Amino acid sequence: MKKATKFAAIALASALAVSVVSAPAANAAPACSSKTTVTMLGTIKVEIKEQFLKAVSAYNASQKCYTVKTLPDRRPLTFLQVVTPMYAAKKAPTIMYTLQEIPDMANKLMDLKNTKLAKLVPSSLLNAATIGGKVVGVPSTVEAFGLIYNKKVLDKAGVDPKKIATRDDLEAAFKKVEASGKKAVRFSAIWWSLGAHVTNMYFGNSSSTHEGRLKVLDGLAAGTKKLASDAVFKDWLATFELLKKYNSNKTQTIDATGDAEYADAVAELAKSEVGFWFMGNWAEPSLMAKAPETTDFGLMPLPISNNAKAYGNNSIAVGVPGFFLIDKVQSTPAQREGALDFLTWLYTSTKGQHFVADNVDKGGMGFIPVYKGSKVEANTFMSKDISTYVKANKAIEWINSYYPAGGQNLYGASGQKLWADKITGAEYAAEIEAAWKGATKTWRGVKK
Fold this sequence. Notes:
Elements: H1 7-13, E1 36-41, H2 49-62, E2 66-71, H3 79-88, E3 95-98, H4 102-105, H5 116-120, E4 130-131, E5 134-135, E6 138-139, E7 143-150, H6 151-157, H7 167-179, E8 183-186, H8 191-203, H9 210-222, H10 231-245, H11 259-270, E9 274-280, H12 284-290, E10 297-300, E11 316-319, E12 323-326, H13 333-348, H14 350-357, H15 381-391, E13 395-397, H16 407-419, H17 425-436
Helix pairs in contact: 6-7, 8-10, 8-16, 11-12, 13-14, 16-17
């Protein structure tokens, strides 16, 4: 798998798709004698399901050749647990959406290299979907995660998020928030957050270079990397324990999807009951739906070191959350054409762009546009914060994009045990090492 050697290229290239050229016109209506049904597995994200389905309905009404039909993704099953039996039953969806499973799916997917969409996105954002020289997916957007904060709560406590540079600074901020009568931080023990985003705070900070971070994965796969003696890992564990210590809800009941905890955390932050929440900007639509008049949400780094100059302390984690994939082995040519027509309409037509980038209260998904020529710019509070960090080259790589399929499930399960004090930090390190040992080095282009 061909990967960029420096994450700075990704960060700079993804700086919110500036409108420097006119947006391309949507595909001209193709000639067709009958309608073709194009199936898509899922609706990208549950948080924007309603908005995505409205976009699908608008597309279906815009032309007479294709009908896009969404299929339930059967959460909490993993992507491969859902899609593998569908292929076995000869009922594969035409359009799919995923990230870490792309290497597992590559031989079933259409090469999109020469499509209009692939040519409109910065090449660096295609790296995770480039397998054996073929581009088998196109990105939905870029996202970022770190500490979401409620400015109203922080102002009342006298906390300036821009002055939080170390882990000790963060604890001092937590204490000020609590002294003001509010709760300090929500730390959600949801498996997908613990497995992908929380662990990425170690892996993304483990080296200041892309190659150095990949070497950490190499060492874990070979069984030679010892996390318990790694200084960055120790710092990261200390930060984990800090979030746990000040967590506003220490008795979370976590179901298989984590939906209940997620909804409770959204409500707590939206009601200005808590100062911080470790999560990403994908939560902004839900927050805005709960507090539509609020202008007080922001996104800031989670410092994991007490050295203010340590790599990553002043940065947020930025990356592509997922790619659209098109089946090539069980779909018909007409279905593949319809899949491309829908995705092209979504990202290049003015109406589609509004569904992509408008705020949730205006019926959009609140995505940050990454396709060149977009006439509709994201203007949510967090997207502006993300733009500021990206343009300042303060972006941590999403190393979780390289995790083996199913890996984040294992890391998330171990993280839940650590969160609940069922294992120690040393035992957690051992479980992570065991989960990685023997992993196929897909991040080095090794085929399964």
